[in-house]
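In this supplementary section we document a worked example of the pipeline. Step one takes a protein sequence of length 237 as its only input; no multiple sequence alignment statistics are reported here. Step two produces a three-dimensional model, which step three serialises into structure tokens for compact storage. The input and output of this example are shown verbatim.
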Amino acid sequence: MSSAPRPTAALLPPAAYTLYALYALYALYTPPPPPPPPTLKNSQTMAADTDAPKIHGIDTTIADPLERIKAFTALWQNDAYQGFDTDLVRHRLRVDSYTPPSPPSASTPAAPATPPTITFTLTIPASYSNRMGNLHGGAAALIFDVCTTAALAPIAAPGFYSYAGVTRSLNVTYLRPVPVGSEVSVVCEVLHAGRRLVTIRGEIRVEGKVCAVVEHLKANIDPPPGEGRRLVRGGRL
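The serialised model returned by step three reads:
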């Protein structure tokens, strides 16, 4: 008794096997496509983004100089801003006092008035220290940068440092160590304010002793009065 013949599979032409092998090699050695690049926000894209944080300036409508300084430092409370100086301004720095400029004396009427003085206070935390347990030099420069910039608030006007300028140079001289936990005073005064450049001096003091001094030169970035806001890198004025 003979059995039924077994069905045979249809054979593909040799060219089909060649194409299949080439496709397998292509799939094996071809790298996957790269991920799309991250979306970076520049001044143009931020200008069209209504949720982008704005670069706020000094409120020149506030007449009281001390309140104007406090209003300027309050801008750091905006949760949309997460800058390098956030911890310092939000949680450490306190606006202590403002001393107005003194007029020329009767004996020397031609002498310039004493510049206004703004004093800030803070307690140095361990996170601002160096390996020796003293205030880190970079942290001191940050403190000076913020405080001397805020010192511009009393003299600001539309077109005149109402956006607090940008740093051109920040020269710090360190005289004494400032141990962690020290209560320090940062005393700032505007030495000279021209149309384009302003010079501010600051001192970090501990118990009346000067521990560091700074000379901060800033450039005015305000648009001319009446021109309105303009784009700047990283945000909007």
